[in-house]
Design brief:
mainly alpha; EF_hand_dom
Amino acid sequence: MKLSYMASLAALFIALPAAAQPSTRPMGPGPMPVFADFDGNGDGRITEQEFIDARSKRIAERASEGRAMRGLSQALDFKEIDTHGDGGLSREEFDANQMRHFQNRPMPPAR
């Protein structure tokens, strides 16, 4: 029993330095944004400017983290997401777009 404990402890000390090294590979997809991330003033509706600002902020954050931005070129613009054509996104329009985007999102390469 003592020997297996010592072997486990030795394996842990060997693995720790490797685990502490920063990854040089771009991280996979991050969490999907939620409505509140885009509704800057919290009024329950996303304007085109709020949408542009939130998307730009998200892209900048992901780029600074070194994340891959697969699928960005296929992302719909505001007018394509505004299915009601009223100049604002409801929670339902936003969530429907997020679901479409999630389903069409390229999978990261297998490790």
